[in-house]
Here is the input.
Amino acid sequence: MLALFYLFAALAVGSAAMVITRRNAVHSALWLIVTFFAVAGLFILQRAEFLAAVQVLVYAGGIMVLFLFVIMLVNLEQTSGQFRSPLRLATAATVTALTVGGVAAVLAGAGPLSGVAFAEGPPISPMVREGMLAGNLEAVGMQLLTTYLLPFELVSLVLMVAVIGAIVLARRDA
Amino acid sequence: MDAVAGTNHYLVVSLLLFGIGVAGVLIRRNAVVVLMSIELILNAANLNFIAFNGRIQAAGGPSNNMGQIFSLFIIAVAAAEAAIGLAIVIALMRSRDSINVDQVDLMKG
Here is the structure.
């Protein structure tokens, strides 16, 4: 389990670093797909199998196709000048260091959060263990359609507004 | 118990992903890559939700998968955000023939 965790973690962080350092936007997009798959692997290690599937389907399957289409439409030939001026880079380094350093300090000060015994990762949900639900998909699906029914339906409204907004924004005669 | 990854491990990975995302937003000129970096930041947030969801269940808390459901909503909002952001990139390309974020400074004082 620990070896798998380190594999996925290294893959996620390494490919994320490649995303922001590649000059070609298509290469960035392809590395981003690797990141999404690695994060999906981390989700599975935490017994969030349904979320891992959604991550691959929605991110790697849907959003990345959208990104690649837009990269194709805006047709970037220039591969130089992709990074901002040295002054901006110095500012960016300072802001990033402060943000990451601050969160790291809080994390270090919070003491070991791994105090809970993770014998085999998080346990299987009781309802699944007792055979009342078939698995993570059914457990999450049941929650979505009972307790979280209203937010779940509102998400479809958000998506519809986003689709209409995207069409209006990208219209040729807008 | 040291043979498995604890919550701290996940938080460190999430912190690194978040830092890389912030750096990407700040150093890149290409608006499409800036949007990709925002997706990295959202993924880092999802990783935190999942890690704490697993932690609550391991500690014997309520097994209502709340963290997983929050992550699901974040993914849906991220999809909407990507669609709107990329539509803006296309509109930008039409009106200025460039998606360089340094050149979009109409509101700069």
